[in-house]
Structure of LysE family translocator:
Amino acid sequence: MTGTPGPNNLMVTASGANFGYWRTLPHMMGIGLGLVSMIVLVAAGLGVVFTRFPLLHELLRWCGSVYLLYLAWKIATASSAPRVEQQNSQPMTFWAAAMFQYVNPKAWMMSVTAISTFTVAGELYWQSATLVAGVFFLICFPSVSVWAGFGSVIGRWLHSSRARRVFNGVMGALTAGCVVMIW
């Protein structure tokens, strides 16, 4: 699930194209930490809250959709200047990427599914939950890294402002399209 197209992977692709792989690294690490922290919270019982309070799930969908549309807008309207001229622009920070996971419905679905599917009941529960979180972190980083690397390669081909503007518009539209998956 961490390798499939979704909000995180589209955002790191756009970031890789606009800022390069190395400047996107904090964003990638934030995704991993945010996902792992969410898995741990779901293992601790937070996932049950959505079952007991469906209104909270609905609120998450609305907040996630609005924030995702905001991020899509930021991507679509990002600077079309070449990478070397974007030194004052900043990619998503570590903490912003980590906190984004909490309004990312795909991350919630992955966390709840992982804990309900791959943990064992009883005295080995926390060991299995820790293993699940660790495996997700180990798989998540290479997955988003491939997408950021892909974006970085694409960024090398975007020599004109027009090409970069079109690319950012397409990536923004694809990111906004993820809202459809939420509903």
Q: What stands out?
A: The chain has a mean pLDDT of 85.
